Fold:
Amino acid sequence: MTPTFRSFFLVSLLLALAACSSQVPVATGPSGEQDSAPSQILDWHNIPDAEPKWEPRARYGNHSPYKVFGKTYHVLPSSKGYNEVGIGSWYGKKFAGRPTSSQEPYDPYAMTAAHKSLPLPSYVRVTNLDNNKQIVVRVNDRGPFHEGRIIDLSYAAAHKIGYANKGTARVKVEVIELEREAITRPTRPANYVAPVNGNKQSYYLQVGAFQDLSTAKNLRLQLIALTAAPVGIYSQSDARESAIHRVRIGPFASENAAQQVQYELRETVSDPLLIKR
Structure:
């Protein structure tokens, strides 16, 4: 093969490969892995936006601080007033069905997103600054951990806002602030006991454990509005580790009493841990 013909062949081959790759969008997921578009094609514009509603913080995914690739990140104590302009990206097929940071399975066809610091879950309005399209998504995952990017949309959300094929776009992210519905606090029931001394055992529902005290305090305030049982923060530390702040409901006089409150809070508190002290 002559040098001229070989050069022509290599250039032709490279052009062909580039043409093929342009037909299949490729992205980088929250953890930096190579990703691709899902195979199913939908009418993206008819997928409804996420419907904002007040939700308690997820039990998982709100640990703060946390480290990814050696870099430390902090979860915001509150999403109030958050808005930011930066680069948005998307993630799709490779992560379908995997647990998100909140332990919900990732669905590339749902209107969700990943964010490094917003509390999980949060609802945000995302504007594509290239075409002014807007969507509302529910943030239930962490990422993107790619320098310069501020949000990773699901594939459906990126398609609806108009940058799935492009891969990234300049976006504005604004939190949708939600007021907790007014809750009539119930009268204090007889299914809990005051803190006890001696060897008598009591039962607690542990809702979360955090290194960030403000996160624990915020969760405590949410729980106080939901139950008449006492809610406390129990902090513990030693010389080798940072303090851990555990949010617990109780104490209760019996395991059955604790389970009753656990059942009453099943719609708002995700899988609290029943412990005995």
Remarks:
- Residues 37 and 215 are 36 Å apart (CA to CA).
- The radius of gyration is 24 Å.
- The chain is about 15% helix and 30% strand.
- The chain has two domains: 24-175, 203-276.
